[in-house]
């Protein structure tokens, strides 16, 4: 039960149903989930460890604000972790993985004229899971997903605005390039593809939040 409550509250935070800065009331949550306040306290403690909330004495648990300076640091680690994982995955990506990617590509194409930000994030997560499966290292997958979740709210806030179609096209481009590598048998470019897509993704977010278009990525990383 506690795990279900954790996943539900975590998803609400990630998808901005609980806004940054919002106070979460233990009593209200306990009544909603029909449990005592004890399991709610444990869930909130776990979310604090995940850095999704912070406890404010005599006030309650507040959903953490989105601090872009910290997000930049998280992305810096993501670049290295995901490059490493892709390097492990490239030799084990199979035709079965390719078929999964084709399905994702078709699903993603349907979103070009059908705005559904949450559906697009699910496609991106499915792509990550394919790479996790090919890499075959669950510890690395957990680490990668933890970092991904720390940057997720920034991306989702952009998806909810006018940049949605650009983000769909970016996911489509990455899926197509990965499929082409699998079909051709030349998988050595996968690490470069994955890293460049992530760098471009970060640049789009940075230009939105900080208005720093034109700055060289190398100056920051």
TrEMBL record:
Keywords, in A-Z order: DNA-binding, Transcription, Transcription regulation
Any one GO molecular function term: DNA-binding transcription factor activity
Entry-linked Pfam families: FCD, GntR
Source organism superkingdom: Bacteria
Segments forming domain HTH gntR-type: 1-66
Keyword Transcription belongs to the record: yes
Matching InterPro entries: GntR_C, TF_FadR/GntR_C, Tscrpt_reg_HTH_GntR, WH-like_DNA-bd_sf, WH_DNA-bd_sf
PANTHER family: GLUCONATE OPERON TRANSCRIPTIONAL REPRESSOR (PTHR43537:SF24), TRANSCRIPTIONAL REGULATOR, GNTR FAMILY (PTHR43537)
Protein name: HTH-type transcriptional regulator
Source species: Desulfamplus magnetovallimortis
């Amino acid at each position: 039960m506690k795990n279900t409550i954790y996943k539900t509250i975590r998803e609400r935070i990630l998808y901005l149903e609980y806004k940054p800065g919002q106070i979460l009331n233990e009593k209200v949550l306990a009544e909603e989930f029909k449990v005592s306040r004890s399991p709610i306290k444990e869930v909130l403690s776990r979310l604090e460890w995940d850095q999704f909330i912070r406890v404010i004495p005599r006030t309650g648990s507040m959903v953490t604000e989105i601090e872009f300076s910290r997000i930049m640091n998280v992305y810096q680690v993501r670049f290295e972790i995901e490059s490493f994982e892709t390097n492990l995955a490239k030799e084990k990506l199979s035709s079965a993985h390719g078929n999964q990617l084709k399905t994702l590509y078709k699903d993603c194409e349907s979103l070009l004229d059908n705005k559904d930000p949450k559906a697009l994030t699910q496609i991106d997560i499915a792509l990550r899971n394919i790479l996790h499966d090919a890499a075959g290292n669950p510890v690395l997958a957990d680490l990668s997903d933890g970092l991904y979740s720390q940057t997720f709210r920034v991306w989702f806030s952009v998806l909810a605005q006018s940049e949605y179609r650009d983000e769909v096209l970016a996911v489509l481009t990455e899926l197509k390039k990965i499929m082409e590598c699998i079909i051709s048998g030349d998988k050595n470019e996968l690490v470069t593809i994955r890293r460049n897509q992530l760098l471009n993704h970060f640049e789009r977010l940075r230009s939105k939040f900080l208005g720093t278009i034109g700055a060289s990525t190398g100056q920051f990383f």
